[in-house]
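Exercise: predict the fold of this chain.
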Amino acid sequence: MAFNLSPLDLSHRPDFIWKIGLVLETPELAVDITSAIAATGTTPVFELPASSPSFDIASAVERVKPDILFVELARASKPAAEWMVDVRQGGPTPFVIAVHPVPEPGEMISALRAGASEFISLPVKPAIYEALDRLATVLESRRFATVEPGKIVGVLAPKGGCGATSVACHLSVAMHLAAPSSRILVADLDYQSPGAHHIFRSDGRTDATPRAKRRNNAGDAFEAVRRLSTSSWSEFVTTVAPGVDLLASPAEGAGAETQPGLPEQWRVESLFRFISRQYTWVFADLGRHLNPAGWTVLQNINELIIVTAPDVLALYQTRSVLQTLSNRGFDKSRIRIILNRNLSTPQDFWVESIQQMFEMPVFGLVPDDTALDKLPRDRFEFPAETSFGRAVTKMAARILKPGGGANPAPGKKAA
């Protein structure tokens, strides 16, 4: 069968990643359905007449393994229930969306009793997209059940100026450079002073023009968490470096009068469950202090990195944070201390003294490095040849090493 595509009536839909097969006979159905799925950024993996022998269709299914079939069951070569058994060969997939030129109740009941998941008729839009979204959610759930979740690392500063956001962003890039097959997400969940987009030289928009459309951010992802899928996720993140995505802060671009509210706990849990199946590593920038936004995230992370600095106030605040975490039952073995030595602080604090103060080892040291001031301002560039870059790279290698994420034994030299 040869059909012409009708004009698309949608300006944009996220790409649909699941494979679709068409088993149709009526030309009007074929035109409408082909046009609709073209709007999702996909094309059918095969097209066969509905009157074809069920053996031929089963062979195509076995060979191509589509996830979803649009089938005109009323024109099939045998009764719907028998046709389903032949094509699925005893398995639960592919999912079948039964189609019919008119919304005839008898055909709908017959199709659903035979095992079809959905039933649509002309005109297929917008019902076809609702059906595809429902089935995509089921397919995602089945796929996630077999995927090992990635690790989620929270990054916290005891006070402003410790450089936690810079460490999180550069560490994410160093992790991908050390493990090129990994996918990394930096989730900026700082509701007070988000800065990841500055580090990555990204303004959080789809392009650099002042009038460009605002990118969706973490707040939008929390709101849409029930509808998130692999195909729609690109609408919420920006690729800021090879293998590294940025989920912008909910406070990004918000004015003083439009500060976003905190998401409900179930939304936080659902979003982190979703992103842990999308990425190998997730670095969640929790901002400064143990604020309410940070508490909603803490119970969903695997480890916590506290980035402090060698000044009296930062160290005092760090000890206070550690004490609060301990009082709330947060396991100390899941905490990593990184000492970021910036230029504005005195240098007379010994690491050994700091470790005694915190009663735990320092996981990594980031030295002073004036070379960072010479990096490009118009694009992100990982400073691999600087002392800062080498220190971050060394920490990334330790985290990636099996068992390397654990704190070193007392007395061992930090990275």
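Check your answer against the key: The domain at 20-144 is CATH 3.40.50.2300 (Rossmann fold).
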